Write a sequence for this structure.
């Protein structure tokens, strides 16, 4: 762990062909709804906490990971084991008549995600996050990522020139350990809700002091900053919604938001 299995990079969760997960019933795996079917199982290792990734693509080799087909990224509990395991092991363990846990074991690390059978799962948008370290300080975006599911997005599901929650379900959150400089103002370190106003040519991103983890009821009196994002059309479809950072320098990055055929971008600096 941290060597053959590197920190902070998606791992095939095994060797050779991509690891597959098959379920003949609908279930909640951690906090994510997983309908019956076949998926590939990936992971994002970290010394303090892993994410288990459920991906819709199947039948591929373990080096052919397509992030755009992620169904969910699920936080997992990680523990140190007293007795090391030499051969990588995946187990499914019963914890009740309709529940269990998925466990990964290798070396001295054990990773666990609970699951429960659920015949009434709703197509909620799974949670995801993206983070980056600038000048020794962490910036993080936490959001729910909706899928297109055959719907028209821009101008229909997401109306133009109107306030949007910038995701689904609860408000999208920005958590920063550093003061940030953006076009149009400074964002002091702290935790904020993110709203946006999409247009045909760009997007205005709104940073708001509303308590995160709540429903998206925007109070303009709590706005801290509003800054523009440029828009470009892309040929390679993005689904579900994705928000991420791209590093430009030790103190500079680009915040990007992409869905379907559009990517919105804004430059962020750490003074």
């Amino acid at each position: 762990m941290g060597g053959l299995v590197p920190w902070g990079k998606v791992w095939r969760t095994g060797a050779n062909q991509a690891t597959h997960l098959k379920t003949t019933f609908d279930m909640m795996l951690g906090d994510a709804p997983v309908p019956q079917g076949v998926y590939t199982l990936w992971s994002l290792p970290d010394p303090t906490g892993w994410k288990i990734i459920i991906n819709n693509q199947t039948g591929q080799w373990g080096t052919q990971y397509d992030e755009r087909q992620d169904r969910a990224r699920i936080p997992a509990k990680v523990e140190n084991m007293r007795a090391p395991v030499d051969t990588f092991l995946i187990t499914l363990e019963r914890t009740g008549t309709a529940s269990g846990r998925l466990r990964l074991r290798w070396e001295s690390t054990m990773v666990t995600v609970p699951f429960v059978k659920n015949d009434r799962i709703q197509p909620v948008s799974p949670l995801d996050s993206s983070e980056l370290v600038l000048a020794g300080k962490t910036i993080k975006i936490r959001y729910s990522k909706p899928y297109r599911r055959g719907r028209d997005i821009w101008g229909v599901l997401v109306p133009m020139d109107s306030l949007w929650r910038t995701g689904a379900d609860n408000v999208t959150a920005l958590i920063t350990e550093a003061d940030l400089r953006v076009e149009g103002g400074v964002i002091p370190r702290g935790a904020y809700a993110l709203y946006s106003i999409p247009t045909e040519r760009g997007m205005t991103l709104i940073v708001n002091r509303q308590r995160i983890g709540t429903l998206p009821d925007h109070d303009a009196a709590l706005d801290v900053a509003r800054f523009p994002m440029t828009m470009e059309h892309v040929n390679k479809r993005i689904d579900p919604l994705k928000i991420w950072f791209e590093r430009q320098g030790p103190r500079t990055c680009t915040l990007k938001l992409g869905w379907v055929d559009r990517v919105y971008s804004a430059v962020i600096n750490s003074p």
Observations:
- The radius of gyration is 20 Å.
- The chain has a mean pLDDT of 91.
